[in-house]
Amino acid sequence: MDSSLGHDEL
Amino acid sequence: MNAFRLAGDMTHLLSVVVLLLKIHTIKSCAGISLKTQELYALVFAARYLDLFIHFISLYNTVMKLVFLASSFSIVWYMRRHKIVRRTYDKDHDTFRHHFLVLPCLALALLINERFTFREVMWAFSIYLEAVAILPQLVLLQRTRNIDNLTGQYVFFLGAYRVLYILNWIYRYFTEPHFVHWISWVAGIVQTLLYADFFYYYIMSWKNNVKLELPA
């Protein structure tokens, strides 16, 4: 999984 | 986005609004730790490096800009504004916050989701945010008269952390592959730091007495 997807939180 | 996440973001936003209200309208930063505010500015600067690279949503971009602008303007107010800076309780805000930065950076270099500049900075921001409240909590303990806005500011910040944990639990069960150990562990540590404050805050509210933390 692209870890940038996980950084959708503030 | 689930309700916990939205509620978490809103309490986070509310904490910033309360603090800006105190600083901008009352022209006072009494009881507020500049050290904590400087750490938050660093946290957001490190975390939102992808602001103009990775577009997630308009909501996400706007919120990031709000947190960046508000954290840096709060630091500016506390350091430079000629009325506000006089209310800063420098003598009691003595936590050596610089000593938090290096261990967090070292930890981020060791434990990250991927060894790239942005991922290391992201992990660094998560670790630093977890401990950034410490100077503020120490200052609160030393403050005899904690005013309502300062108490509310810290309460909303803590509430934001609790709601984020509920959000992760929800996402874990509803989104496949949603596993982020770094933010979960750091987030739980961060929330536990508020436990003591929450206890005294709720007690003071329940008994209708002024908030005071035991030294």
UniProtKB/TrEMBL annotation, chain B:
Positions of transmembrane segments: 52-78, 99-115, 121-140, 152-170, 182-202
Membrane topology, as annotated: Multi-pass membrane protein
Coiled coil: none
GO cellular component terms, semicolon-separated: cis-Golgi network; endoplasmic reticulum; endoplasmic reticulum membrane
Assigned keywords, A-Z: Endoplasmic reticulum, ER-Golgi transport, Membrane, Protein transport, Receptor, Transmembrane, Transmembrane helix, Transport
Localization per Swiss-Prot or TrEMBL: Endoplasmic reticulum membrane
The keyword Transport is annotated on this UniProt entry: yes
Main location: endoplasmic reticulum
PROSITE patterns, A to Z: ER_LUMEN_RECEPTOR_1, ER_LUMEN_RECEPTOR_2
Pfam families xref list: ER_lumen_recept
Any GO BP annotation: protein retention in ER lumen
One function term, GO molecular function aspect: ER retention sequence binding
InterPro entries: ER_ret_rcpt (IPR000133)
Entry's family note: Belongs to the ERD2 family.
Entry protein name: ER lumen protein-retaining receptor
